[in-house]
Amino acid sequence: MNPTIKPEAAPPAIPPAIIARRVIRAADRATLATGQRDAGGWPYPSLVLTALDHDASPLLLISDLADHTANIKADPRAGLLFDGTGGLAEPLTGPRVSVLGRMEVTDDPRHRARFLARHESASFYAGFGDFTVWRMVVERAHLVAGFGRIHWITAGDLLFRLSDTETLALREPDVVEHMNEDHADAVELYATVLLGQPGGGWKLTGVDPEGCDLRLGGRTSRLDFDHPVADAEAARMELVRLVRKARASLGETQA
To answer: Quick one: which of 149, 2, 122, 140 has its CA closest to 62?
Structure first.
């Protein structure tokens, strides 16, 4: 009698909130939808650059002279569409996330620093008097992850919660500077080996509890951690593990 062969268990499904956060964390731009104040509230879409706080709240640096800024001053309700379908032959099979919330001005210097780290070129105009950092207070999000994979997500599920997140947020500039100045080779391996990007001098622009952001000129990439990290030391250990993984895939001897 042949022994019974048990089928391999299917990997656990990734929760919709995690999929949504991966999409919005990977994006460096979005379509902003506001109500046009002088046209009866007609939807007004515009392209904006984005960054995210550590909890995944969207951050914008926008001019007071722009129509979308005047719109949110009149009505702070807004939507942001993050597109994760780039490079797909059939875009409608890929993920996209609409985040809904209310925009508010933030004077937190950490928010400005995080945006400018993500978009270094914005430093050229960030000091102009009419440019202000805004943060979206998320109310809910809508994920479409392909045909039939559609989910509404509450703010409580979408936003990342971790008691020690602030510890990492405060140390983030030190971690990023250390990696770029002392471990540029590791950053390049993250991009070229683990993410399959072409080489050329990638830089780390941010580290949050769920991964790190990289940039090379106008190209961005996102490296997700296998497990969330709570503080700078845990982030360091995860970054070390990832570079060892990259070197192992190249057959390099580990120190």
So the answer is: 122
The maximal CA–CA distance of the chain, rounded, in angstroms, is 81
- What tens digit of pLDDT does each residue of 84-141 get? 999 899 999 999 999 999 999 999 999 999 999 999 999 999 999 999 999 999 999 9
30's enclosing H/E stretch is strand 29-35
Right CATH for 165-249 from 3.20.180.10, 1.20.1250.20, 3.10.20.90, 3.40.50.300: 3.20.180.10
CATH of 16-158, one of 2.170.270.10, 2.60.120.1440, 2.30.110.10, 2.40.100.10: 2.30.110.10
Model confidence pLDDT, tens digit, residues 152-204: 999 999 999 866 556 899 999 999 999 999 999 999 999 999 999 999 999 99
Tokens of 136: 């979206």
For 103, list phi and psi in degrees, rounded to 5: -85, 140
Beta bridge partner(s), residue 216: 219
Tracing tokens 């209310």 back to the chain, one arrives at 102
Residues 221/191, Cβ–Cβ less than 8 Å: yes
pTM score of the predicted model: 0.91
